[in-house]
Design a protein that fits this description.
Keywords: Acetylation, ATP-binding, Ligase, Nucleotide-binding. The protein is of the alpha/beta class. Helix content is 30%, strand content 23%. Strand 22 and strand 23 (468-470) form a beta hairpin. Adenosine-5'-monophosphate-propyl ester binds at residues 217, 262-263, 335-338, 357-362, 382, 441-443, 455, 458, 464, 469.
Length: 567
């Protein structure tokens, strides 16, 4: 099962924060970790305080907290500056009625405004709801409608994708630009902040169990569900930042995810700032040259990305790589989809570093299965359970299976990062806990005799394309809105670059004839309404969809089994 394993390799000056996995596991307690937080003494809890303000109080106000790069443009923010700006934005939002417990959506590109908005909302005790910047009108509408959202922070370009007529609950649209760039009914947050002094703003102290953020995530059925995390997740996020990201005082850390995805919130904002690291934000989309240039320019030391990105860099070729000086890098991590052994070998050979796979989910709130810098990597394995986390492989009856057998990947609940609730959907929340005391991930896996866990696929129809989670139901529903489409079944088709691509099988309405133009029109229809990442890359017209005899449900598994496996 395992390929050639890779021993740890690091410069002596970079001794890992965690040096012995077995030892840490046997003596670990989450209560010990709590001592790292100011609230363990003061009783005053707020994630934003631990990420920003406490570092200023501790004398690190002058340290660079955020380095934003977009092409030739750069911005640097110190912890001091971030404290002042998040205070002002929080005060401005408060002056317009945002209060503790309110959900505030944040629909912005990866830029400083986005990161500041996230922390300002949290400082107020409100719930931050980041939305992926590529979402189109209906993806935005479904999410805001689900929780009757009242507030959103956005910019003039993205604001046009908010269908206000369909969203009567939405009271205030804050724009991060001047008043001249606002349309009627929008509020210039930039001007409001200009007029606001930070004097007198004080952080809203909350309970550890209070809601922190909401991430909408797709499953195999229904529309996306709102996963709510609590402030207590910081305990888990801090400790994984310390041991798995291995963050140290002088690290410059770059996580490539957008905050609309859970990795872009937990491991691009919270975990690194809880560990007082300098974070790098790259404003552009994926491009091999600009990514390598970002590492070179910002002197990135720790880098967290996803298999599709590594595969794209690998296929961009060594010629591109040779143009950049990447000697600053010392630790690389991956998440979101299976990491192929060949990519790990490429990293070892071309970057001189191992790529450390990690496994977790939106619902888990932080990493649960990890490869640590001090431990052996078995390429093809996601690693071993983080200390303090118990993982088992269960059969369909919820019994623990022996090593080497494939079954349901389950985690002993609870742990500090686990979701607090699924927004107003108790049935969905309960569905994760069918077997007493276990959280069921929906993934299938095998554990070997050393405790290493190997991903084997999903037990449901959820699609994972480039590490982004896509619900087939959402795409099928959108396809059915196209006049030409009578029926639709959507699957993840195995793909060498993206892991899976979205593939749709459709039956046409009578009166429509199959043509390349029609197929392109249907694809663009989904792309422009829902989002680019959910639009089918392949559409196949068939006469009839396979369905169950009794309930008439589409048999996606059967559609999937028709696809040749491509490696
Ligand atoms: O199927 C697993 C896959 O991504 C799912 C979780 O997706 P999401 O909630 O969007 O969170 C992604 C990043 C935290 C999982 O159920 N997945 C995540 N990490 C890995 C993975 N599959 C294989 N290997 C991984 N390392």
């Amino acid at each position: 099962m395992s390929n050639r394993s890779l021993a740890p390799s690091f410069q002596p000056r970079n001794k890992p924060n965690l040096q012995n996995y077995d030892q840490a596991r046997s003596s670990f307690s989450w209560q010990q970790v709590e001592k790292q937080f100011t609230w363990s003494e003061t009783g005053k809890v707020n994630m934003a305080h631990e990420c920003i303000d406490r570092h200023v109080e501790d004398g690190f106000g002058g340290k660079t907290a955020l380095h934003y790069i977009n092409g030739e443009y750069e911005e640097r923010w110190t912890f001091d500056e971030l404290k002042r700006q998040t205070d002002r934005v929080a005060a401005a939002l408060h002056s317009k009625g945002v209060r503790r417990g309110d959900i505030v959506f944040i629909f912005l590109p990866k830029n400083a405004d986005c990161y500041i908005a996230m922390l300002a909302v949290v400082k107020l005790g409100a719930i931050a709801g980041p939305l992926f910047e590529a979402f189109m009108e209906e993806a935005v509408r479904d999410r805001i409608q689900d929780c009757a959202g009242r507030f959103i922070i956005t910019d003039p370009d993205l604001a046009v994708r908010i269908p206000r007529d369909d969203l009567p609950s939405l009271e205030k649209v804050f724009i991060t630009a001047s008043a001249e760039r606002c349309r009627s009914g929008e509020i210039s947050l930039a001007e409001l902040v200009e007029q606001t002094t930070d004097n007198g703003f004080s952080t809203e102290w909350v309970d550890l169990e209070d809601p922190l953020n909401i991430h909408y995530t797709s499953g195999s059925t229904g529309k996306p569900k709102g996963i709510i995390h609590a402030h207590r997740a910081m305990i888990h996020q801090y400790q994984t930042g310390h041991w798995v990201l291995d963050l140290k005082e002088d690290d410059v850390y770059w996580c490539t995810a957008h905050p609309g995805w859970v990795t872009g919130t937990v491991y691009a904002i919270f975990a690194p700032w809880l560990n007082r690291a300098t974070i790098v934000v790259n404003g552009g989309r994926f491009d091999a040259d600009s990514w390598y240039a970002t590492i070179e320019r910002a002197k990135v030391t720790v880098w967290y990305s996803a298999p599709t990105a590594f595969r794209m860099l690998k296929s961009a070729g060594d010629g591109v790589l040779a143009r950049y000086e990447l000697g600053s890098l010392r630790h690389i991590l991956s998440v979101g989809e299976p990491l192929n052994p060949e990519v790990i070998y490429w990293g070892s050979e071309q970057l001189g570093l191992r790529i450390h796979d990690t496994w977790w989910m939106t619902e888990t709130g932080a990493q649960l299965i990890v490869n640590l810098p001090s431990e052996i990597i078995k390429p093809g394995s996601m690693g071993r359970p983080f200390p303090g986390i118990t993982v088992s492989i269960l059969n369909d009856q919820g019994e623990v299976l022996p090593n080497g057998e494939i079954g349901h990947l389950a985690i002993r609940a609870p742990w500090p990062g686990i979701m607090r609730e699924v927004w107003q959907n108790e049935a969905k929340y309960n569905s994760y806990f069918q077997f007493d005391g276990w959280y069921l991930s929906g993934d299938l896996a095998i554990q070997d005799e050393d405790g290493y866990i190997f991903f084997q696929g999903r037990s449901d129809d959820m699609i994972n394309s480039s590490g982004e989670r896509i619900g087939p139901f959402e795409v099928e529903s959108k396809l059915l809105e196209h006049a030409a489409v009578a029926e639709a079944g959507v699957i993840g088709k195995p793909d060498a670059l993206r892991g899976e691509i979205v593939k749709a099988f459709i039956v046409l309405n009578s009166g429509y004839a199959h043509s390349p133009e029609l197929i392109e029109d249907i694809r663009l229809f989904v792309r422009s309404k829902l989002s680019a990442h959910a639009a089918p890359r392949e559409i196949e017209v068939i006469e009839e969809l396979p369905k169950t005899k009794i309930s008439g449900k589409i048999l996606r598994r059967e559609l999937k089994s028709r696809e040749p496996i491509e490696q």
